[in-house]
Design a protein that fits this description.
With 143 residues, the chain is an alpha+beta fold. Helices cover 38% and strands 20% of the residues. It has seven helices and four strands. It is globular, with a radius of gyration of 14 Å. The structure holds adenosine-5'-triphosphate (ATP) and magnesium ion (MG).
């Protein structure tokens, strides 16, 4: 298994609930290291660019409003198999379907306000990391 980097966002609902620390603890306890981080409120247009792949979906407008409704914490996680591992720790998109013990099962209220985002492929991870961070802001933790 290779060391990978992935983009994680703690969404505005989870930031508002003050569970940033609990979510990052789960990443760290499972072997993922934070190598870049920024708390930032996106504009609706910026959220729209980030989620452009969903532009034709019926929920796109609601998704952009929600993602710009308050500050969100964007970070880059690094570790073995980071992309799939992050998705596993997040749980299913709809918290009603998320496995017990996952971040979404514990902290998400609905399919809209679902606490976290995680890149879903190596290609998307590279694009999403570049959306938020410059190369010089990535502080690799691998010796
Ligand atoms: P994310 O990209 O935020 O990590 P995901 O990869 O699990 O979530 P996607 O299919 O990429 O799920 O959808 C992006 C976001 O759009 C979801 O997190 C969710 O908030 C919203 N969404 C997805 N499907 C629906 C749906 N059927 N109804 C309402 N909102 C949805
Ligand atoms: Mg997605």
């Amino acid at each position: 298994m290779a060391v990978q980097r992935t983009l994680s966002i703690i969404k505005p609902d989870a930031v508002a609930k003050n569970v940033v620390g609990d979510i990052i603890r789960r990443f760290e306890e499972n072997g993922l290291s934070v190598i870049a981080v920024r708390l930032q409120q996106l504009s609706a247009a910026e959220a729209g660019r980030f989620y452009a792949v969903h532009a034709e979906r019926p929920f796109y407008g609601d998704l952009c409003s929600f993602m710009s409704s308050g500050p969100a914490l964007a970070m880059v996680l690094e570790g073995q198999n980071a992309i799939a591992l992050n998705r596993q720790l997040m749980g299913a998109t709809n918290p009603k379907e998320a496995e017990a013990g996952t971040i979404r099962a514990d902290h998400a209220d609905s399919i809209d306000a679902n606490a976290v985002h995680g890149s879903d492929s190596a290609e998307n991870a590279a694009n999403e990391i570049a959306f938020f961070f410059a190369d010089l802001e990535l502080n690799s933790r691998i010796a």
